[in-house]
């Protein structure tokens, strides 16, 4: 579960963005200050809930006395029409926070739902579905949390928690060996090192170096199988590139340990959710 200190600044900034300079001029013109109402947060489509506590915090920020009742919490699967939660609060708070809350809930639930679909496709294999740093600026911690709720796992959170030597690093360094040697000379003993390779020839060279994970980039399943056989358990294998619902099973059956999917956090469709007063 996310700590409120992690997500409250994000929700506060989203509300401030929506309120602008003059506040909710529509709601404030129509709704009496003392009016109280109950709203139902409902699923419009099948999916997995993620970010509910984040979304509901938007209502509580505008009305600290809001009463929240969760019917289907984070990680729950819901059918169309299901009540996810109910909120009783000042009517102005409900209407003003509605879009911020639904934006966050729909976005994060969409990521969890897409992750769930990929995870189901690779059941029975050793492969784990992992996300990447291709996240919405400012929302990374929330989007990566949504991936976990969908049954996936997280790749590194940022540039500082693991080393990933990519093709451009290799080009600048003048080769895989000098890139790895410089990294190993600079980092602490607790830091994992991953290196991206595009060919089996590069992989053969990499196997002579002190590396923890190999990123097998844009390789087809037969090539991935050969790569996994070459590695033979000496490092973690991660496949990346051209991963879809229709291709992920074949990729997983190659024997790789991880399958990284960028579109989970940059292109997953929102889950359709609504607020009914």
UniProtKB/TrEMBL annotation:
Its EC number is 2.4.2.19. It comes from the Bacteria. Pathway: Cofactor biosynthesis; NAD(+) biosynthesis; nicotinate D-ribonucleotide from quinolinate: step 1/1. Residues 111-276 form the Quinolinate phosphoribosyl transferase C-terminal domain. The keyword Ribosomal protein does not apply. CDD domains: QPRTase (cd01572). Gene3D superfamilies: Aldolase class I (3.20.20.70), Quinolinate phosphoribosyl transferase, N-terminal domain (3.90.1170.20). It holds the Pfam family QRPTase_N. GO terms for cellular component: cytoplasm. InterPro entries: Aldolase_TIM, NadC, NadC/ModD, Nicotinate_pribotase-like_C, Quinolinate_PRibosylTase_N_sf, Quinolinate_PRibosylTrfase_C, Quinolinate_PRibosylTrfase_N. It catalyses: nicotinate beta-D-ribonucleotide + CO2 + diphosphate = quinolinate + 5-phospho-alpha-D-ribose 1-diphosphate + 2 H(+). SUPFAM superfamilies: Nicotinate/Quinolinate PRTase C-terminal domain-like (SSF51690), Nicotinate/Quinolinate PRTase N-terminal domain-like (SSF54675). The keyword Hydrolase does not apply. GO terms for molecular function: nicotinate-nucleotide diphosphorylase (carboxylating) activity. One of its GO terms (biological process) is quinolinate catabolic process. Involved in the catabolism of quinolinic acid (QA). Hexamer formed by 3 homodimers. Belongs to the NadC/ModD family. This is Probable nicotinate-nucleotide pyrophosphorylase [carboxylating]. It comes from Azospirillum brasilense.
């Amino acid at each position: 579960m996310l700590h409120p200190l992690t997500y409250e600044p994000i929700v506060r900034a989203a509300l401030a963005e929506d309120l602008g300079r003059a506040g909710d001029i529509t709601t404030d013109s129509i709704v009496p200050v003392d009016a109280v109402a109950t709203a139902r947060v409902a699923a419009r489509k099948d999916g997995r809930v993620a970010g509910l506590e984040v979304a509901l915090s938007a209502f509580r920020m505008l009305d600290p006395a809001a009463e929240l009742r969760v019917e289907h919490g984070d990680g729950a699967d819901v059918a169309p029409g299901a009540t996810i939660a109910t909120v009783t609060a000042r009517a102005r708070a409900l209407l003003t926070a509605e879009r911020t809350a639904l934006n966050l809930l729909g976005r994060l639930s969409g990521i969890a739902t897409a992750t769930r679909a990929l995870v189901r496709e690779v059941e029975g294999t050793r492969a784990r579905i992992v996300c990447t740093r291709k996240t919405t600026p400012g929302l990374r911690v929330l989007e990566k949390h949504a991936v976990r709720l969908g049954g996936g796992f997280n790749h590194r959170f940022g540039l500082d928690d693991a080393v990933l030597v990519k093709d451009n690093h290799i080009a600048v360094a003048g080769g895989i060996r000098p890139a790895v040697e410089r990294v190993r000379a600079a980092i602490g003993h607790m830091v994992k090192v991953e290196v991206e390779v595009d060919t089996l020839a590069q992989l053969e060279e990499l196997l002579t170096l002190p590396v923890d994970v190999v990123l097998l980039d844009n390789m087809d399943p037969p090539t991935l199988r050969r790569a996994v056989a070459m590695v033979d358990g000496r490092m973690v294998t991660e496949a990346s590139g051209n991963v879809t619902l229709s291709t992920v099973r074949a990729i997983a059956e190659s024997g790789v340990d991880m399958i990284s999917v960028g579109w989970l956090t940059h292109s997953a469709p929102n889950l359709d959710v609504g607020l009914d007063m």
